[in-house]
Amino acid sequence: MTNKLTLSILAALLTTSAGVSAKQPEFAADHCKAGEINAQHYRNFPAAEAEAKARHAKLFERKRAMAKPGDDASVAIGDTPSALALSATPSYVIPVVFHVYGTQFNGKTVTDAVIIDALNKTNEDFQGRTADFADIDAEFQGVKQALNIEFRLASIDPQGNPTSGIVYHPASSGAGNYSSSDVKRDHWDNYKYMNVYIQNDLYADGVTNNSGVAWYPDTTMSDEGLARVTYNGAYLGSNTDENFRSVLTHEFGHFLDLIHTFEGGCKRGMERRCGTTGDENCDTPQQNSWQMNPGDGGIVNCMGQTINWQNFMAYSDQYANFTQDQVARMVNGLDSQARVTLWSAQNQAATGVAN
Ligand SMILES: [Zn+2]
């Protein structure tokens, strides 16, 4: 499932700063390039980075507003205990459209049934309705959190006609590239639909085992019809194994503003600034590298902390959970200008996903 070239490049990129020697993991390594492509996006569009900073300042304010009496609300967000994570999250229903390009995905096909199954399972991941969610490491039983969200295939298209929420196109590639012409041409209004593009060669570079990529909430992209998740049809639902199909959940996490838990590696100095460094969540211990699964380098980080190796935003061979801080960040992302219209009651009715 892995490609040695891309794997070695990724290993070189990600292990240099972490100071960990490259090691071939037993699971597929090249899950996604979200860290790189979002960093590139912010270099290209400073306004997008400013928007992200404003969004995260809002999250800090929300957490501070919820601080209990006695808590020091003036502390940096990095010191905010996970107990302050937002609670009582409302229900979110997100209308989704899948754009499927071609019929061959490393020998697999993508049908309505495959997509429906994949989406159902991703909903179970988010809602904590899997056996793994119940069975995660003891250290994270008190930290894990579900999000009451459901991604539903749209049943009304932008013209007001009935739809399955799945649109088939001739084979194409490159929907993982920022300015993909397929993405722009075929998108449905990004403020009304979450657009998911299914291809096999995500970057039009001849590599067919990149699993997926997604951008964080950003109105520049939504205005241009470029907001999206791009995903490899070979790794949708039953087209792959039970664990690896959760990479779709991982990409949806990015779409809702989550960063990789291994971002930035592990550094002692980052600990007190955990709300603004790494994945910007304090209840996800830093990871030395992405290569941290039991048997793949240990599960204790550079400071001796047990890591949440089963986190959906890690590269895990047993995906299981999000944390309280991650859910708070997703709720904040759902309230952002680029995402808030998706789940409004008015839009749920207009796209045919209302209860
Ligand atoms: Zn990712």
UniProtKB/TrEMBL annotation:
Q: Which CDD domains match?
A: ZnMc_pappalysin_like
> What molecular function terms (GO) are annotated for this protein?
metal ion binding; metallopeptidase activity
Q: Report domain Peptidase M43 pregnancy-associated plasma-A positions.
A: 177-335
- Which InterPro entries does this UniProt record tie to the protein? MetalloPept_cat_dom_sf, Peptidase_M43
Q: Identify the keywords attached in UniProt to this record, alphabetized.
A: Disulfide bond, Hydrolase, Metal-binding, Metalloprotease, Protease, Signal, Zinc
The record ties this protein, via Gene3D superfamilies, to: Collagenase (Catalytic Domain)
Instruction: Provide one Gene Ontology biological process annotation.
Output: proteolysis
**Hydrolase among keywords:** yes
Output the superkingdom of the source species: Bacteria
A family per Pfam: Peptidase_M43
Signal sequence region? 1-22
- Which intervals of the chain form a coiled coil? none
Q: Which family does it belong to?
A: Belongs to the peptidase M43B family.
This protein is called what? Peptidase M43 pregnancy-associated plasma-A domain-containing protein
Its taxonomic path starts at: Bacteria, Pseudomonadati, Pseudomonadota, Gammaproteobacteria, Alteromonadales
